[in-house]
Specification:
Among the domains are: about 5-35; about 320-475, no CATH class; about 485-553, no CATH class. It has 22 helices and no strands. It has helices at about 5-35, 35-85, 90-110, 130-140, 150-170, 180-195, 200-215, 220-255, 255-265, 270-300, 300-310, 320-345, 355-360, 365-385, 390-420, 425-450, 455-470, 475-490, 495-500, 510-515, 520-535, 545-550. By secondary structure, it is mostly helical. The model is unreliable at about 25-35 and about 110-120 (pLDDT under 50). Helix 3 (about 90-110) runs parallel beside helix 5 (about 150-170) and helix 4 (about 130-140) packs parallel to helix 17.
Length: about 550
């Protein structure tokens, strides 16, 4: 025999020994179980306890489905009615108000909300009346403008405010930082979206409990009779179908009126567009239902609430603060030199040889806006991860001061550029952004010396009020008014921008020759609006700005 054969025999022997040992162990365990009376008594108790745990879990799911199931479905229908193919119609403010009423009612009904825990509003909470009023105002502004940019940011503002409102209802926000709000909101939303399988599991639990109750009540015989009836009806239909077809053909050949009736029934066609709309509506209702139910089911679980609270806790960092001192020191030196150049060259007008004031001042505003935003992030990250040494606070204060100078420099450059090349929506938006940056930087400066200051609340209120005012002002109207006035003063007129790049908000300021020209976009926008109004349930798409423009044009 070879060495390979010997190895094979040894391996077979080891394998047989293992099988023998395993059999002996199983026999011993079986003997112990069957002979020990305590183990025999304990096994049914263990099974009963496991069954009770499973039953309690199913009852919990059944209770949750009864609480949120019908409400989520009704909200999905309401959402679809208001917003299906209708991004800025008259139904938008009703959608905003209905959403607030729905969620507030079910949050109060839920046992896991902070309102049921009697927490009330803490100092860290933002006033709920302000949040609700701002959401309603943004929804109202959506049906009063034709500007796509305004509509988009109105919706974004509503989403952010609504997330903050939900966080306040389910969590105590005391001590939450800006990053905690962001992490908490992301976990709340994406956890709810990822939990979209919850309604299926809850419906299955309700069905299992119902079937178990029927078995306990002795209703199995009645359900068996029902199944027998369904089976019998199905067999009858299979038998009668070919018979009915044959008789129908004979009757159709015997009578012309019956033939026409049968022909119309068999040649019935479905409008493809209507069918596609039905599919889209059903899909939208389903998506909204599962998302809404998932948000409620995820955020009312105590373990998920605790997980979000733990994730939002500010962790103590042990990063060496002298790293931040080095980084901010270098940045501070560079900013001081740049700010000095701005004061001397831009504000005082003392330029080196070879530079003209017009070419120097009319560039660089977008770059400075980016640097200002970067400085805000830099200061917040430094305070969050490196503490607040005295020397570090001094450096951050200098950076904040330099940011103010950069903000003024960017605004001044933009105003000079507008004076030469007139207004556009982006240029006006930059000016608004610079004002908001200056106000936010003031809050950051206060937070540098007092970290108990609720910076997130300050920033949210500032940006909310600022954007609502900007959106309500209808910027396109003022852009058209300013540019037309500049043209009348002798400046070169950019008629292409006035005819093609503005929304219907600008129509009240435009002359008749501008919106009547062949390449004008206003007629096409109004025709599209009138087609929407003429469709089924077209009253939903009524928009104040578009209606006024259609009446005038």
């Amino acid at each position: 025999m070879t060495m390979m054969d010997n190895d094979k025999m040894d391996n077979d022997k080891i394998k047989n020994d293992k099988i023998k040992i395993r059999r002996e162990g199983l026999e011993m365990d079986h003997h112990m179980i069957t002979t020990d009376p305590q183990l025999l008594t304990a096994l049914p108790q263990v099974d009963q306890a496991a069954q009770e745990v499973k039953t309690n879990e199913m009852k919990k799911k059944q209770k949750r489905f009864r609480m949120f199931g019908i409400g989520s479905f009704l909200y999905a229908l309401f959402y679809t009615f208001c917003l299906y193919r209708n991004a800025s119609g008259i139904t938008y403010p009703f959608f905003a108000g209905g959403t607030l009423l729905f969620f507030c009612y079910f949050i109060k009904k839920s046992e896991s909300s902070s309102a049921d825990g009697n927490r009330g509003q803490t100092k860290a909470h933002i006033n709920k009346t302000f949040l609700m009023a701002s959401i309603a105002a943004a929804g109202l502004l959506n049906c009063a403008t034709d500007s796509g940019v305004l509509i988009f940011f109105n919706k974004l503002l509503m989403t952010v405010l609504f997330c903050v409102l939900l966080l306040q209802c389910w969590h105590d926000l005391t001590g939450w930082s800006v990053t905690a709000y962001i992490k908490g909101g992301m976990m709340m939303l994406f956890g709810g979206i990822a939990n979209t399988i919850a309604p299926i599991c809850d419906v299955a639990a309700c069905w299992q409990l119902r079937r178990r109750d029927r078995e306990k009540d002795g209703r199995t015989e009645r359900s068996a009779n029902g199944r027998r009836l369904v089976r019998s009806v199905g067999i009858g239909l299979l038998i009668v179908f070919p018979m009915a077809m044959l008789i129908a053909l004979l009757l159709a050949s015997a009578d012309a009126v019956f033939y026409d009736l049968l022909y119309n029934i068999l040649t019935f066609s479905i409008d493809i567009d209507s069918f596609e709309d039905m599919i889209r509506i059903a899909g939208l209702v389903s998506v909204v239902f599962v998302v809404c139910y998932g948000i409620f089911s995820y955020n009312t679980e105590p373990q998920n609430i605790s997980a979000i609270d733990n994730k939002a806790q500010t962790a103590k960092t042990n990063w060496d603060p002298y790293i931040a001192v080095t980084v901010n020191g270098v940045m501070c030196a560079m900013y001081v030199v740049f700010s000095g150049i701005q004061i001397v060259s831009l504000f005082l007008g003392k330029l080196p040889k070879g530079f003209t004031y017009a070419s120097y001042a009319r560039h660089g505003f977008f770059e400075l806006v980016f640097v200002c935003i970067f400085n805000i992030v830099l200061v917040l990250c430094t305070l969050a991860y490196f503490g607040s040494l005295r020397v570090l606070r001094v450096l951050l204060t200098i950076i904040c001061g330099c940011t103010y100078i950069m903000t003024v420099s960017s605004a001044y450059r933009m105003l000079l550029y507008i004076a030469s090349y007139q207004l556009t929506f982006l240029r006006l938006l930059v000016l608004w952004g610079l004002v908001m940056i200056a106000v936010v930087m003031t809050g950051v400066l206060v937070y540098t010396y007092d970290q108990k200051f609720s910076l997130f609340r300050f920033v949210l209120v500032t940006l909310t009020v600022g954007w609502l005012c900007f959106s309500a002002a209808h910027p396109d109207y003022w852009i058209a008014s300013y540019n037309i006035a500049a043209c009348e003063d002798g400046q070169e007129c950019d008629s292409y921008y006035l005819r093609r790049r503005l929304s219907l908000d600008a129509v009240p300021a435009l002359s008749e020759e501008l919106w009547k020209s062949e390449d004008s976009v206003y007629h096409r926008r109004i025709e599209r609006y009138q087609r929407q109004r003429g469709m089924f349930m077209g009253f939903r798409s009524f928009n104040f700005s578009r209606a006024y423009a259609a009446h005038r044009i």
